[in-house]
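User: structure tokens for this one?
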Amino acid sequence: MSATYDVDVPVRWSDQDPYQHVNHAKVVTLLEDARTALLFDAAAREGVAAFEAGLLVAHVDVRYRRPIPWTRRGLRARMWAHSVRAASFTVGYELLLPDDGAGDGWDPKPAVTADTQLVPYDLAAARPRRLSEDERTFLARYVA
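Assistant:
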């Protein structure tokens, strides 16, 4: 795997359900928050702003490995790209829980693994578009 993109994502108190863990619908929002940091913030810092012009979610696959309790430290989202095609790509994720015991402070066993297939979209033309060369180059840094 090439480099991953890691970002810490806050877990809000209101993300919990009555069972005292993060509700499944809120997990998808946490994935979106992490993905925004990669495709909008990190990409824009590198001069790639086209993702902000339009991206549609084509498919989401979430696998819950263990409950996510609320924690002041939040989660670490580890992301990479795969299945990069002419007009779509997929972001893979691992959501890691804090581990106050050892290592870098994050439990290596993910609480959630997920994939989101995305399609670049031309909002003005109301149709999908192809990835630009800049977008492909950016994603290549994170291809698994």
